[in-house]
Amino acid sequence: MNAPVEVAIVGAGPYGLSLAAHLDAAGIQTRVFGRAMDSWRSHMPEGMLLKSDPFASNLSDPQDFYTLARFSEEQSIPYSEPEPVKLEVFCAYGLAFQKRCVPRLTDAQVTNVERMGDEFVVSLDNGGKVSARRVAIAIGVGPFRYVPEILGALPDGLVSHSFDHRDLSLFSGARVAVIGGGSSAIDLAGLLHERGCNVALVSRRTELRFTGRSSQPSGPDPWWRRIRHPPSGLGPGLRSRFSTDAPLLIHALPKSLRFEFVRRHLGPAASRVMKDKVVGQVPLLLEREVVAAAVEGSGVALKLSKKDGLLETLRFDHVIAATGFRVDVSRLTLLSPSLRKDIAEYKGAPILTRHFQSSVPGLYFIGLTAAASFGPLMRFTFGARYAARRLTRALVRSQRAPARCFTGPTLDGHAGTPV
Protein backbone atom coordinates (compact mmCIF):
# COMPACT_ATOMS: atom_id res chain seq x y z
CA MET A 1 0.00 0.00 0.00
CA ASN A 2 1.09 3.56 -0.69
CA ALA A 3 0.98 6.36 1.88
CA PRO A 4 -2.54 6.74 3.31
CA VAL A 5 -4.99 9.06 1.62
CA GLU A 6 -6.80 11.56 3.79
CA VAL A 7 -10.34 10.36 3.00
CA ALA A 8 -11.68 7.20 1.36
CA ILE A 9 -15.28 7.46 0.14
CA VAL A 10 -17.17 4.19 -0.18
CA GLY A 11 -19.95 4.65 -2.72
CA ALA A 12 -20.26 6.61 -5.98
CA GLY A 13 -23.90 7.66 -5.95
CA PRO A 14 -25.19 11.22 -5.48
CA TYR A 15 -23.84 11.49 -1.92
CA GLY A 16 -20.42 9.99 -2.56
CA LEU A 17 -19.84 11.98 -5.74
CA SER A 18 -21.03 15.23 -4.16
CA LEU A 19 -18.76 14.78 -1.14
CA ALA A 20 -15.80 14.01 -3.41
CA ALA A 21 -16.41 17.18 -5.44
CA HIS A 22 -16.44 19.31 -2.28
CA LEU A 23 -13.37 17.65 -0.74
CA ASP A 24 -11.52 18.08 -4.01
CA ALA A 25 -12.15 21.82 -4.03
CA ALA A 26 -11.04 22.00 -0.38
CA GLY A 27 -7.70 20.41 -1.26
CA ILE A 28 -8.23 17.18 0.67
CA GLN A 29 -6.69 14.07 -0.86
CA THR A 30 -9.56 11.72 -1.62
CA ARG A 31 -10.20 8.32 -3.20
CA VAL A 32 -13.70 7.30 -4.27
CA PHE A 33 -14.64 3.65 -4.74
CA GLY A 34 -17.65 2.19 -6.53
CA ARG A 35 -19.49 2.12 -9.83
CA ALA A 36 -20.87 5.56 -10.64
CA MET A 37 -24.63 5.82 -9.98
CA ASP A 38 -24.84 2.03 -9.69
CA SER A 39 -28.08 1.83 -7.69
CA TRP A 40 -29.84 4.09 -10.19
CA ARG A 41 -28.37 2.47 -13.30
CA SER A 42 -28.69 -1.17 -12.27
CA HIS A 43 -31.53 -1.41 -9.78
CA MET A 44 -34.22 1.07 -10.76
CA PRO A 45 -36.86 -0.04 -13.31
CA GLU A 46 -36.59 1.27 -16.84
CA GLY A 47 -39.16 3.95 -17.54
CA MET A 48 -39.29 5.15 -13.94
CA LEU A 49 -39.93 8.82 -13.17
CA LEU A 50 -38.19 10.42 -10.21
CA LYS A 51 -40.37 11.36 -7.27
CA SER A 52 -38.28 14.46 -6.50
CA ASP A 53 -38.81 17.74 -8.36
CA PRO A 54 -36.12 18.62 -10.93
CA PHE A 55 -34.59 21.37 -8.75
CA ALA A 56 -34.30 18.81 -5.92
CA SER A 57 -32.48 16.26 -8.10
CA ASN A 58 -29.10 18.00 -8.33
CA LEU A 59 -25.80 16.53 -7.29
CA SER A 60 -23.65 19.10 -5.54
CA ASP A 61 -20.38 20.79 -6.42
CA PRO A 62 -18.97 23.69 -4.38
CA GLN A 63 -20.09 26.35 -6.85
CA ASP A 64 -23.56 24.83 -7.41
CA PHE A 65 -22.52 24.98 -11.05
CA TYR A 66 -23.22 21.61 -12.64
CA THR A 67 -26.92 21.24 -11.98
CA LEU A 68 -29.46 19.05 -13.74
CA ALA A 69 -30.76 22.18 -15.47
CA ARG A 70 -27.30 23.01 -16.83
CA PHE A 71 -26.73 19.43 -17.98
CA SER A 72 -30.12 19.41 -19.70
CA GLU A 73 -29.30 22.67 -21.47
CA GLU A 74 -25.95 21.31 -22.66
CA GLN A 75 -27.57 18.15 -23.97
CA SER A 76 -30.66 19.89 -25.42
CA ILE A 77 -32.91 17.88 -23.09
CA PRO A 78 -36.24 19.51 -22.19
CA TYR A 79 -36.25 20.76 -18.59
CA SER A 80 -39.28 22.08 -16.78
CA GLU A 81 -40.01 22.16 -13.06
CA PRO A 82 -43.55 20.76 -13.32
CA GLU A 83 -42.31 17.84 -15.39
CA PRO A 84 -40.91 14.81 -13.53
CA VAL A 85 -37.34 13.74 -14.28
CA LYS A 86 -36.91 10.57 -16.29
CA LEU A 87 -34.64 7.94 -14.78
CA GLU A 88 -32.45 7.72 -17.86
CA VAL A 89 -31.90 11.49 -17.82
CA PHE A 90 -30.94 11.46 -14.15
CA CYS A 91 -28.50 8.59 -14.70
CA ALA A 92 -26.91 10.36 -17.65
CA TYR A 93 -26.60 13.52 -15.57
CA GLY A 94 -24.98 11.61 -12.70
CA LEU A 95 -22.43 10.05 -15.06
CA ALA A 96 -21.65 13.42 -16.61
CA PHE A 97 -21.23 14.92 -13.13
CA GLN A 98 -18.81 12.14 -12.20
CA LYS A 99 -16.69 12.58 -15.33
CA ARG A 100 -16.59 16.33 -14.86
CA CYS A 101 -16.23 16.65 -11.09
CA VAL A 102 -14.81 13.33 -9.90
CA PRO A 103 -12.72 12.09 -12.85
CA ARG A 104 -10.48 9.79 -10.80
CA LEU A 105 -13.17 7.45 -9.59
CA THR A 106 -11.90 3.93 -8.81
CA ASP A 107 -14.44 1.58 -10.40
CA ALA A 108 -14.06 -1.23 -7.86
CA GLN A 109 -16.21 -2.57 -5.07
CA VAL A 110 -15.09 -2.32 -1.47
CA THR A 111 -15.08 -5.76 0.14
CA ASN A 112 -13.75 -4.89 3.59
CA VAL A 113 -12.96 -1.90 5.77
CA GLU A 114 -11.01 -2.50 8.96
CA ARG A 115 -9.28 -0.28 11.46
CA MET A 116 -5.53 -0.64 11.92
CA GLY A 117 -4.37 1.64 14.69
CA ASP A 118 -5.25 5.24 13.80
CA GLU A 119 -5.95 4.41 10.16
CA PHE A 120 -8.29 2.27 8.06
CA VAL A 121 -7.44 -0.35 5.46
CA VAL A 122 -9.89 -0.54 2.55
CA SER A 123 -9.82 -3.82 0.58
CA LEU A 124 -11.16 -3.97 -2.99
CA ASP A 125 -12.63 -6.75 -5.11
CA ASN A 126 -9.74 -6.36 -7.59
CA GLY A 127 -7.26 -7.37 -4.88
CA GLY A 128 -6.06 -3.86 -4.14
CA LYS A 129 -5.79 -2.27 -0.71
CA VAL A 130 -5.79 1.40 0.25
CA SER A 131 -4.92 2.96 3.58
CA ALA A 132 -6.94 6.00 4.66
CA ARG A 133 -7.00 8.27 7.69
CA ARG A 134 -10.75 8.68 7.42
CA VAL A 135 -13.55 6.75 5.72
CA ALA A 136 -16.94 8.09 4.61
CA ILE A 137 -19.63 5.48 3.99
CA ALA A 138 -21.87 6.81 1.22
CA ILE A 139 -23.51 3.61 0.03
CA GLY A 140 -27.08 3.47 -1.19
CA VAL A 141 -30.03 1.41 -0.07
CA GLY A 142 -28.94 -1.94 -1.51
CA PRO A 143 -27.62 -3.62 1.66
CA PHE A 144 -30.80 -2.77 3.54
CA ARG A 145 -33.48 -4.50 1.48
CA TYR A 146 -36.37 -5.59 3.67
CA VAL A 147 -38.38 -8.70 2.77
CA PRO A 148 -41.06 -9.89 5.23
CA GLU A 149 -40.24 -13.23 6.83
CA ILE A 150 -43.29 -14.87 5.23
CA LEU A 151 -42.02 -14.07 1.75
CA GLY A 152 -38.35 -14.59 2.56
CA ALA A 153 -38.98 -18.31 3.06
CA LEU A 154 -39.88 -18.72 -0.63
CA PRO A 155 -37.25 -19.88 -3.17
CA ASP A 156 -35.26 -17.08 -4.80
CA GLY A 157 -36.77 -17.81 -8.21
CA LEU A 158 -40.27 -17.08 -6.95
CA VAL A 159 -39.73 -14.01 -4.81
CA SER A 160 -37.53 -10.95 -5.19
CA HIS A 161 -37.17 -7.41 -3.89
CA SER A 162 -38.09 -4.36 -5.94
CA PHE A 163 -34.41 -3.31 -5.84
CA ASP A 164 -33.52 -6.38 -7.90
CA HIS A 165 -35.28 -5.32 -11.10
CA ARG A 166 -34.12 -3.12 -13.94
CA ASP A 167 -35.52 -4.86 -17.04
CA LEU A 168 -39.22 -5.46 -16.44
CA SER A 169 -39.84 -6.95 -19.87
CA LEU A 170 -38.79 -10.30 -18.36
CA PHE A 171 -42.21 -10.43 -16.68
CA SER A 172 -44.24 -9.85 -19.83
CA GLY A 173 -47.29 -12.11 -19.72
CA ALA A 174 -46.54 -13.39 -16.22
CA ARG A 175 -48.82 -13.20 -13.20
CA VAL A 176 -47.00 -11.02 -10.69
CA ALA A 177 -47.99 -9.79 -7.24
CA VAL A 178 -46.33 -6.58 -6.06
CA ILE A 179 -46.47 -6.31 -2.26
CA GLY A 180 -46.40 -2.81 -0.79
CA GLY A 181 -48.09 0.56 -0.92
CA GLY A 182 -45.26 3.04 -1.39
CA SER A 183 -43.52 4.65 -4.31
CA SER A 184 -41.55 1.56 -5.35
CA ALA A 185 -44.65 -0.65 -5.30
CA ILE A 186 -46.85 1.78 -7.21
CA ASP A 187 -44.15 2.57 -9.78
CA LEU A 188 -43.43 -1.10 -10.37
CA ALA A 189 -47.11 -2.02 -10.71
CA GLY A 190 -47.69 0.73 -13.27
CA LEU A 191 -44.57 -0.06 -15.29
CA LEU A 192 -45.23 -3.81 -15.24
CA HIS A 193 -48.76 -3.20 -16.50
CA GLU A 194 -47.39 -1.11 -19.38
CA ARG A 195 -45.14 -4.03 -20.34
CA GLY A 196 -48.00 -6.50 -20.64
CA CYS A 197 -47.65 -8.12 -17.25
CA ASN A 198 -50.70 -9.51 -15.45
CA VAL A 199 -49.89 -7.62 -12.25
CA ALA A 200 -51.81 -7.01 -9.03
CA LEU A 201 -50.85 -4.64 -6.21
CA VAL A 202 -51.35 -6.03 -2.70
CA SER A 203 -51.23 -3.56 0.20
CA ARG A 204 -52.36 -3.23 3.80
CA ARG A 205 -53.20 0.42 3.11
CA THR A 206 -56.81 1.61 2.88
CA GLU A 207 -55.92 3.83 -0.07
CA LEU A 208 -52.86 4.73 -2.08
CA ARG A 209 -51.25 8.13 -1.58
CA PHE A 210 -49.94 10.35 -4.35
CA THR A 211 -47.96 13.50 -3.65
CA GLY A 212 -46.49 16.40 -5.56
CA ARG A 213 -47.73 18.52 -8.40
CA SER A 214 -49.38 17.22 -11.51
CA SER A 215 -47.45 17.58 -14.73
CA GLN A 216 -49.83 20.31 -15.88
CA PRO A 217 -50.64 22.54 -12.89
CA SER A 218 -53.72 24.69 -13.18
CA GLY A 219 -51.93 27.76 -11.86
CA PRO A 220 -50.02 29.15 -8.89
CA ASP A 221 -51.18 28.13 -5.43
CA PRO A 222 -53.08 30.79 -3.44
CA TRP A 223 -51.04 32.71 -0.86
CA TRP A 224 -52.68 31.00 2.10
CA ARG A 225 -51.74 27.58 0.78
CA ARG A 226 -48.14 28.64 0.18
CA ILE A 227 -47.96 29.73 3.85
CA ARG A 228 -49.53 26.55 5.21
CA HIS A 229 -47.71 24.30 2.74
CA PRO A 230 -44.39 26.03 1.93
CA PRO A 231 -42.31 24.49 -0.86
CA SER A 232 -39.19 22.49 -0.10
CA GLY A 233 -36.81 20.05 -1.71
CA LEU A 234 -38.87 17.23 -0.18
CA GLY A 235 -42.20 18.56 -1.39
CA PRO A 236 -44.67 21.07 0.09
CA GLY A 237 -45.45 21.16 3.80
CA LEU A 238 -44.22 22.62 7.07
CA ARG A 239 -42.62 19.39 8.25
CA SER A 240 -40.82 18.91 4.95
CA ARG A 241 -39.57 22.50 5.06
CA PHE A 242 -38.43 21.94 8.64
CA SER A 243 -36.60 18.81 7.51
CA THR A 244 -34.64 20.65 4.81
CA ASP A 245 -33.96 23.84 6.77
CA ALA A 246 -33.20 22.53 10.25
CA PRO A 247 -31.48 19.12 10.20
CA LEU A 248 -29.38 20.15 13.21
CA LEU A 249 -32.52 20.82 15.22
CA ILE A 250 -33.71 17.35 14.29
CA HIS A 251 -30.30 16.03 15.37
CA ALA A 252 -30.78 17.70 18.76
CA LEU A 253 -34.03 15.83 19.44
CA PRO A 254 -34.02 12.75 21.70
CA LYS A 255 -33.07 9.81 19.51
CA SER A 256 -36.38 8.01 20.07
CA LEU A 257 -38.37 11.08 18.95
CA ARG A 258 -36.00 11.68 16.05
CA PHE A 259 -36.29 8.09 14.89
CA GLU A 260 -40.07 8.21 15.03
CA PHE A 261 -40.20 11.48 13.07
CA VAL A 262 -38.06 9.96 10.33
CA ARG A 263 -40.21 6.85 10.24
CA ARG A 264 -43.53 8.68 10.02
CA HIS A 265 -42.80 11.71 7.86
CA LEU A 266 -43.01 11.22 4.10
CA GLY A 267 -44.35 7.71 4.45
CA PRO A 268 -45.49 5.46 1.60
CA ALA A 269 -46.56 7.62 -1.35
CA ALA A 270 -45.90 7.84 -5.08
CA SER A 271 -45.57 10.73 -7.47
CA ARG A 272 -48.89 12.12 -8.62
CA VAL A 273 -47.98 11.43 -12.25
CA MET A 274 -48.22 7.70 -11.50
CA LYS A 275 -51.86 7.89 -10.49
CA ASP A 276 -53.23 7.56 -14.02
CA LYS A 277 -50.87 4.64 -14.70
CA VAL A 278 -52.17 2.61 -11.75
CA VAL A 279 -55.65 3.63 -10.62
CA GLY A 280 -58.19 2.04 -12.95
CA GLN A 281 -55.42 0.14 -14.73
CA VAL A 282 -53.96 -2.26 -12.16
CA PRO A 283 -56.04 -4.46 -9.82
CA LEU A 284 -55.60 -2.93 -6.36
CA LEU A 285 -55.98 -5.44 -3.55
CA LEU A 286 -56.05 -2.99 -0.66
CA GLU A 287 -56.65 -3.64 3.03
CA ARG A 288 -55.09 -7.04 2.65
CA GLU A 289 -52.22 -8.61 4.54
CA VAL A 290 -50.16 -11.59 3.44
CA VAL A 291 -50.57 -14.23 6.15
CA ALA A 292 -49.05 -17.20 4.30
CA ALA A 293 -47.07 -17.94 1.14
CA ALA A 294 -46.33 -21.36 -0.28
CA VAL A 295 -44.90 -22.92 -3.41
CA GLU A 296 -47.65 -24.37 -5.57
CA GLY A 297 -46.57 -26.02 -8.78
CA SER A 298 -44.26 -23.60 -10.58
CA GLY A 299 -45.71 -20.56 -8.82
CA VAL A 300 -46.73 -19.10 -5.47
CA ALA A 301 -50.01 -19.29 -3.57
CA LEU A 302 -50.54 -16.20 -1.43
CA LYS A 303 -53.06 -16.35 1.40
CA LEU A 304 -54.42 -12.87 2.09
CA SER A 305 -56.38 -11.67 5.08
CA LYS A 306 -59.01 -9.02 4.38
CA LYS A 307 -60.08 -6.27 6.75
CA ASP A 308 -63.26 -8.17 7.62
CA GLY A 309 -61.22 -11.21 8.62
CA LEU A 310 -62.06 -13.31 5.58
CA LEU A 311 -59.24 -15.14 3.81
CA GLU A 312 -58.57 -15.51 0.12
CA THR A 313 -55.89 -17.39 -1.77
CA LEU A 314 -54.46 -16.06 -5.02
CA ARG A 315 -51.87 -17.63 -7.28
CA PHE A 316 -49.00 -15.92 -9.07
CA ASP A 317 -45.92 -16.81 -11.06
CA HIS A 318 -43.74 -14.43 -9.05
CA VAL A 319 -43.93 -12.13 -6.03
CA ILE A 320 -42.05 -8.83 -5.79
CA ALA A 321 -41.61 -7.42 -2.29
CA ALA A 322 -41.65 -3.64 -2.70
CA THR A 323 -41.43 -3.43 1.06
CA GLY A 324 -38.71 -0.84 1.44
CA PHE A 325 -35.41 -0.72 3.28
CA ARG A 326 -34.38 -0.84 6.92
CA VAL A 327 -31.00 0.50 7.94
CA ASP A 328 -29.10 -2.03 10.02
CA VAL A 329 -25.38 -1.64 10.65
CA SER A 330 -25.07 -5.37 11.25
CA ARG A 331 -25.88 -5.93 7.56
CA LEU A 332 -22.96 -3.80 6.37
CA THR A 333 -20.70 -6.75 5.68
CA LEU A 334 -18.18 -4.51 3.93
CA LEU A 335 -17.21 -3.35 7.42
CA SER A 336 -15.14 -5.81 9.41
CA PRO A 337 -16.96 -7.54 12.28
CA SER A 338 -14.81 -5.76 14.87
CA LEU A 339 -15.56 -2.39 13.28
CA ARG A 340 -19.30 -3.05 13.20
CA LYS A 341 -19.18 -4.04 16.85
CA ASP A 342 -17.62 -0.70 17.80
CA ILE A 343 -20.30 1.41 16.08
CA ALA A 344 -22.88 2.73 18.53
CA GLU A 345 -26.35 2.34 17.06
CA TYR A 346 -30.03 2.86 17.81
CA LYS A 347 -32.49 0.41 16.28
CA GLY A 348 -29.87 -0.56 13.73
CA ALA A 349 -28.90 2.95 12.61
CA PRO A 350 -25.50 4.44 13.51
CA ILE A 351 -25.57 7.24 16.08
CA LEU A 352 -23.75 10.20 14.52
CA THR A 353 -22.29 13.46 15.79
CA ARG A 354 -23.31 16.85 14.38
CA HIS A 355 -20.59 16.30 11.76
CA PHE A 356 -21.69 12.82 10.61
CA GLN A 357 -18.99 10.99 12.58
CA SER A 358 -19.86 7.65 14.17
CA SER A 359 -18.66 6.43 17.56
CA VAL A 360 -15.57 5.15 15.71
CA PRO A 361 -13.23 8.15 15.27
CA GLY A 362 -12.65 8.85 11.59
CA LEU A 363 -15.61 6.78 10.35
CA TYR A 364 -18.47 8.82 8.85
CA PHE A 365 -21.88 7.99 7.38
CA ILE A 366 -23.91 10.06 4.92
CA GLY A 367 -27.07 9.35 2.94
CA LEU A 368 -29.74 6.94 4.10
CA THR A 369 -27.61 5.66 6.99
CA ALA A 370 -27.60 9.20 8.42
CA ALA A 371 -31.37 9.73 8.25
CA ALA A 372 -31.96 8.55 11.83
CA SER A 373 -29.59 11.30 13.01
CA PHE A 374 -30.40 14.19 10.64
CA GLY A 375 -33.93 13.51 9.49
CA PRO A 376 -35.74 12.67 6.23
CA LEU A 377 -33.50 15.01 4.22
CA MET A 378 -30.86 12.26 4.13
CA ARG A 379 -33.24 9.90 2.32
CA PHE A 380 -33.28 12.06 -0.81
CA THR A 381 -30.76 13.30 -3.36
CA PHE A 382 -31.61 16.83 -2.22
CA GLY A 383 -29.71 16.13 1.02
CA ALA A 384 -26.39 15.50 -0.76
CA ARG A 385 -25.53 19.20 -0.81
CA TYR A 386 -26.05 19.63 2.93
CA ALA A 387 -24.10 16.48 3.83
CA ALA A 388 -21.21 17.28 1.47
CA ARG A 389 -20.85 20.86 2.69
CA ARG A 390 -21.09 20.08 6.39
CA LEU A 391 -18.79 17.07 6.35
CA THR A 392 -16.24 18.88 4.18
CA ARG A 393 -16.08 21.78 6.65
CA ALA A 394 -15.54 19.33 9.50
CA LEU A 395 -12.78 17.47 7.67
CA VAL A 396 -11.02 20.68 6.68
CA ARG A 397 -10.93 21.80 10.31
CA SER A 398 -9.50 18.49 11.48
CA GLN A 399 -7.17 17.79 8.57
CA ARG A 400 -3.75 16.73 9.73
CA ALA A 401 -1.81 18.03 6.75
CA PRO A 402 -2.00 21.61 5.39
CA ALA A 403 -4.31 22.17 2.44
CA ARG A 404 -2.73 21.91 -0.99
CA CYS A 405 -2.58 24.68 -3.54
CA PHE A 406 -5.07 24.80 -6.37
CA THR A 407 -3.51 22.91 -9.29
CA GLY A 408 -6.20 21.69 -11.66
CA PRO A 409 -9.21 22.95 -13.61
CA THR A 410 -12.57 23.31 -11.93
CA LEU A 411 -15.98 23.37 -13.58
CA ASP A 412 -15.64 26.95 -14.80
CA GLY A 413 -12.08 26.58 -16.04
CA HIS A 414 -10.40 28.38 -13.14
CA ALA A 415 -7.70 26.88 -10.95
CA GLY A 416 -8.68 24.03 -8.66
CA THR A 417 -7.29 20.88 -7.10
CA PRO A 418 -7.11 17.28 -8.26
CA VAL A 419 -9.09 14.55 -6.54
Largest sheet geometry = 6 strands, mixed
Gross morphology is: globular
What class, by secondary structure content? alpha/beta
Helix content: 25-40%
Write structural notes for this entry:
- Helix 1 (14-25) links the parallel strand 1 (5-10) and strand 2 (30-33).
- Residues 401-419 have low confidence and may be disordered.
- It contains 14 helices and 20 strands.
- With 419 residues, it is α/β, with parallel strands linked by helices.
- The relative contact order is 0.18.
- The two termini are 18 Å apart.
- It has helices at residues 14-25, 38-43, 68-74, 87-101, 149-152, 183-194, 223-228, 238-245, 247-252, 255-264, 275-278, 337-342, 371-374, 384-398, and strands at 5-10, 30-33, 110-116, 119-124, 129-137, 159-161, 175-179, 198-202, 210-211, 270-271, 284-285, 288-296, 299-306, 311-316, 318-321, 345-346, 349-350, 363-365, 408-409, 415-416.
- The protein is globular and about 65 Å long.
- Helix 1 packs parallel to helix 4.
- The strands form 6 sheets. Strands 1, 2, 3, 4, 5 and 18 form a 6-stranded mixed beta sheet that branches. The protein has a 5-stranded parallel beta sheet with strand order 6-15-7-8-11, covered by helices on one side. A 3-stranded antiparallel beta sheet has the order 12-13-14, with no helix packed on it.
